[in-house]
């Protein structure tokens, strides 16, 4: 999907000088922002020859994809996915900023938000665990544009059991389709920052199974939102074009 559930949401929301070009903006990079950007910069890409979790095709121009992924004043398709597909609210979105620890043409954006508690979690269990009706969460997105477009995302939650030990990394790879359009593939990895005790290994397997199933189900919804953003961008008058 776009972001998968399981951050450090808080009062360290960013501010940028909106009248400067993207790569020149002054951005309040906080410790948690730097932590996640470093994690993404050091993350290895999945082997592109390996089987993705889910894959598909979008009927759109590959040339329009980069602008579609970063368009909009409200965070673009990633944030639209959080709101529309996952029901997230209280979204705080950073601007797209240059990733100082990655290769050229790589940018970052972070969204902090409240994620509604899954409907299958009993209210009594939530109270027992001290969880409210929503979960503070964040997703850091790194976008690298070239002959193919690679979008990697780290998602963290705060307050859930073992959430401080793990994060979810989704990798989306976009390439020109052989017969036109855009081919996309998605991989999902649960990153254990601090492994669970071996006696709890069954919990790790349960978490990984659920997160991957959720990503497999929702990835096509994210891609549909990307396609809608591309269509909206294509319908906008180009600079210098006649009405």
Number of helices: 5
> In angstroms, what is the radius of gyration?
18 Å
The string of secondary-structure elements, in order, is HEHHEEEHEEEEH
- Unreliably modeled segments: 6-27
Q: Calculate the terminal CA-CA distance, rounded to whole Å.
A: 37 Å
Architecture overview:
Strand 5 (134-145) and strand 6 form a beta hairpin. This protein has helices at 31-42, 65-70, 76-86, 123-129, 201-235, and strands at residues 54-58, 89-93, 97-98, 106-116, 134-145, 149-157, 166-176, 182-192. The chain is globular, with a radius of gyration of 18 Å. It is an alpha+beta fold. Strands 1, 2, 3, 4, 5, 6, 7 and 8 form an 8-stranded antiparallel β-sheet that branches. Helix 3 (76-86) packs across helix 5 (201-235).
Keywords:
243 residues, globular, eight-stranded antiparallel beta sheet, alpha+beta, 5 helices
Helices and strands, with pairings:
Layout (H helix, E strand, L loop, with lengths): L30 H12 L11 E5 L6 H6 L5 H11 L2 E5 L3 E2 L7 E11 L6 H7 L4 E12 L3 E9 L8 E11 L5 E11 L8 H35 L8
Antiparallel strand pairs: 1-8, 2-4, 3-4, 4-5, 5-6, 6-7, 7-8
Helix pairs in contact: 3-5
